[in-house]
Amino acid sequence: MTHRTYSIGEASRLSGVSVRRLRFYSDQGLLPPAGRTESGYRVFTDSELVRLDLISCLRDAGLGLDAIREVLSKELSLTEALTLRLRAIEAEIAAQRRIAAALRTALRSPELTEADLRRIWTMTKLSRDERRSVVEAFYERVSDGVNIDPKWMRQMIEDSVPELPEDPTPAQCDAWIELSGMLNDPGFAANMRNNAKDIWDDATFDPKAWQTEGDAMLVKARDAIARGLEPASETGNALASEWLETSARLTGRRPDADFRIWLRAKYEQHDARAARYWELVAILRGQSPSSSPNREWLWIAAAMTHHLAE
């Protein structure tokens, strides 16, 4: 059977690929000509045009010449080649999203400095192990000089290390950038260390008892919120009184005037970023910020502030 032959100009018109690129593919060994004329010009057949279509498709998909050469020589299957390219594209998209998140965060800053931009840019590129190191360094600063239970601290670190997916959403990127800024803020670490010192340096402190009593109070606060009750309501006042007595009991103190003054100072000095911290962790986990117990604790804090001011 005789195959129709085409000059390089005809092959270019039929394929839409420039003559220059056809020569390039041919010189690279990707598209060997079917033969040559007596004058030495390349000639192609329908088989080469089909091969050219595949080369063009793979190039449009972003494959390099070496990968295309492996596909054409059967060293790499078409499925394997496209799978590799897809993974590369997905990684590139994820990287671009992280960069976009960094740019959004930078542009929100009223007085952006080069140091701020460098920090933001670096935070978006950290691996999970590197993000874990940032969290661990924060808790090391918080626990410095404080008698914190190592087991409790390890659990806090595990609960805080963000498990970002391969393709994080812009909200997750923004959350990590904001969280990393908090974790690297010496002032925030100092506030958390002062709070931890008041609790952990007390020999009577029982973290399990605090967890049990705290969970029970959260349930009551959640019910009050669902009923539309304000922290300054009669129910809020009753729950605040109950939590006052519980706090005194758990710290081995009496709910007297001195304890009320001490506790009121603690609530007034409370760093709002402590609540925001867990909202950001929830976002990084792909959850709603409201999935953290912040709403309930903020309601309790407001009830306590109102109760202690009386």
From TrEMBL:
Gene3D superfamilies: 1.10.1660.10. SMART domains: HTH_MERR (SM00422). Keywords: DNA-binding. InterPro entries: DNA-bd_dom_put_sf, MerR-type_HTH_dom, MerR_fam. Residues 5-74 form the HTH merR-type domain. The keyword Transcription regulation does not apply. The keyword Acyltransferase does not apply. One of its GO terms (molecular function) is DNA-binding transcription factor activity. This is MerR family transcriptional regulator.
